[in-house]
Design goal:
The protein contains eight helices and 14 strands. The chain is of the alpha/beta class and 232 residues long. The protein binds arginine (ARG).
Length: 232
């Protein structure tokens, strides 16, 4: 190929590339942890689905992005934002002071609280959260449920990668209670066929869920906050 032909070919290629580049939507890399129904779970087709996934997909579409959902450990979500492996984390994530030092949160999109599940067999000895001291508790790793469990029964908390594992451990009796977000506890209870598991009356904390982004990404934060009425 002569030099002039080469220049021409390159020019055509870059014009084509520019066309494709402007037509294609930018990809928004979304981190989530899909063992937390109804907010995120693996659907029948093997793909993450749920309230959060639908919310972020709708917000992203409006802002002109395509979403790529990456399922990861709950305790990896914030580090993935800090290292820019993810653009966004949505995972029923409670806005906490500690997390807000590391990442930026949108305005709250859901109000939640924690609750406690126990085995029915223990209902006479465990009547409230104050009866949990010294008892073995189960929770999902890195969650506010795990932190609260640690306050209720210091040094006696077993943490699991997924919320269903913690639930299973309670069922087989390897822990006396699980501390977890109430909507997820209720979801498990609704799916549970045995009447083995009970929810205590305690509600712990006023949690607000937010969508997290890298602290420097104020442009994306603004886009995610636009057109959405925060819960108060
Ligand atoms: N709201 C709790 C927290 O922020 C639990 C969230 C767990 N989410 C999940 N997708 N596993 O710590």
């Amino acid at each position: 190929m002569k030099y002039s032909q080469f220049i021409k070919a390159t020019a055509i290629a870059s014009a084509l590339f520019a066309t494709f580049a402007t037509n294609a939507n930018e990809v928004l890399k979304v981190g989530s942890e899909a063992t937390f129904p109804p907010f995120e779970f693996i659907g029948a087709d093997g793909v993450p689905t749920g309230f959060d996934i639908e919310l972020i997909t709708a917000l992203a579409q409006k802002a002109g992005y395509e979403v790529e959902i990456n399922n990861m450990g709950f305790d990896s979500l914030v580090p993935a934002l800090i290292t820019s492996q993810s653009d966004v984390a949505i995972a029923g994530m409670t806005i906490t002071e500690e997390r807000a030092k590391k990442v930026a949160f949108t305005t709250p999109y859901y109000k939640s609280t924690l609750s406690i599940l126990i085995n029915k067999n223990d209902k006479d000895t465990i009547k409230s959260k104050d009866d949990l001291k010294g008892k073995k508790l189960c929770a999902q790793i890195g969650t506010t449920g795990a932190m609260t469990a640690e306050e209720l029964s210091p040094g006696n908390v077993a943490t699991y990668n997924g919320a269903p594992e913690a639930f299973m451990e309670l069922k087989i009796g390897s822990c006396s209670a699980i501390v977890n977000d109430r909507p997820v506890n209720l979801y498990f209870l609704a799916k549970e066929t045995s009447d083995q598991i009970l929810e205590l009356n305690d509600r712990i904390g006023d949690d607000s869920y937010g969508i997290a982004v890298n602290k420097n990404n104020t442009e994306l934060l603004d886009k995610l906050n636009t057109d959405r009425n925060p819960v108060d």
